[in-house]
Amino acid sequence: MPLLELSHVSKSYQEPGGGPVVAVLQDVCLSVEPAESLAIVGPSGCGKSTLLNILGTLDTPDKGSYHFEGRDISSLGTAELAAMRSEKIGFIFQLHHLMPQCSVLENVMLPTLAMRQRDPSARARAESLLAAVGLADRLNWRPAQLSGGERQRVAVVRALINQPRLILADEPTGALDEQNAEMLTSLLLELQHSTGVSLVMVTHQPAQAARMGRVLRIHQGVLN
Ligand code: ADP
Ligand code: MG
After folding, report:
1. Which of 9, 11, 13 to mutate to test the pocket of ligand 1 (most atoms within 8 A of CB)?
2. Over the stretch 72-108, which tens digit does the pLDDT of each residue have?
3. Can you tell me the distance from the alpha carbon of 200 to that of 222, in angstroms, rounded to the nearest whole number?
4. How far is C-alpha 81 from the chain's CA centre?
């Protein structure tokens, strides 16, 4: 069974001020298998973030269906959906969105507070993941004391802390220099490989996209 399946999904937005309705995604079909890595590429404004938001259940399709682990997402209530999202999906964005007043360790632990049941092994997992990304001696530092590359590594650990089935990364290397971008992609792929999580990464950088198992392109609303 695929991890997730979008079937004939369309999404439109009305331009602000009552302007025309713009079709962003048209008849998108996408199936993602457990433990696979996938890049989504395409020009700015083509709908990459819209697609990731739908995959992350932060937005809903106008038409078509979305199944995650075989369950029809549209059949879930708000609370059930929020619980599913925090347990199964990790998000990484272009900017880290770390809490400035929290330490590295606290930032990584935050998503565990949203879990239905407290996970007593979460702290040990946080420390071990932070060590695995080379931040063992930064646990009590604040985000402002870290480099851009280090902050993104914290964001990667935060996305993995609840042991999700899916990581959605929206241009995670977009704000990094080439060397740090390279390192972050390597890290994501290593963790994807070792944990068996599926990774869907939007990127503008062809060199990063080419390292994923599969590359799909959005062109004029169509994914292929
Ligand atoms: P990308 O991530 O590929 O740059 P997006 O998915 O963010 O593109 O946006 C695709 C198109 O949809 C853009 O034209 C954008 O202006 C429009 N759009 C995105 N979100 C909204 C929204 N909430 N309301 C209206 N238009 C939107
Ligand atoms: Mg975007």
Report:
1. 13
2. 999 999 999 999 999 999 999 999 899 999 999 999 9
3. 17
4. 16
**Measured between alpha carbons, how far is 137 from 114 in angstroms, rounded to an integer?**
26
Which H or E run includes 169?
Answer: strand 166-170
**121-167 tens-digit pLDDT:** 999 999 999 999 999 999 999 999 999 999 999 999 999 999 999 99
Counting ligand 1 atoms within 8 A of each CB, the residue from 11, 24, 41, 217 with the most, and so the one to mutate, is 24
Q: Which of 31, 65, 50 is nearest to 170 (CA)?
A: 50
Q: How far apart are CA 222 and CA 117, in angstroms?
A: 40
| Cα 143 to Cα 64: distance, rounded to the nearest angstrom | 40
What is the set of domains in the chain, with CATH numbers?
A: 35-59+78-223 (3.40.50.300)
* Burial readout 136-164 (b: 16 or more C-beta within 10 A, e: otherwise): eebeeebbeebeebbbbbbbbbbbbbbeb
4: closest CA among 198, 202, 213, 160? 198
